[in-house]
Amino acid sequence: MYRVPLCPERLYITTTGSTIDVTVDSRIAAANQLSNFNARTGITMNVYVIASGGFSVTPTSTTLSGSINLLGDGYIAFGTAPYKAIISGSIIGSGTTTL
Known about the structure:
Blueprint: E1 2-3, E2 11-16, E3 19-24, E4 36-38, E5 47-59, E6 63-74, E7 80-90
Antiparallel strand pairs: 1-2, 2-3, 3-5, 4-5, 5-6, 6-7
């Protein structure tokens, strides 16, 4: 398990084979009011602070796939909302990163 240097108290990163999993530390994630999303647009939108969940990506030599599954707590009004997405794409370049 790795901790992210820029936000070590909020994320956990694990790897299994080529899959990278990033999980939000649900004990304190909502304390960061800047980590938020909205579930819809317009005057009736609500802002949700990320409370739990994470995302997973699996790269191959030519593709990238994965998913996002987050749950947010209401920042302006009470309630919760999910944020879910599927990630897919083509890799057009590669490099290395040293931790």
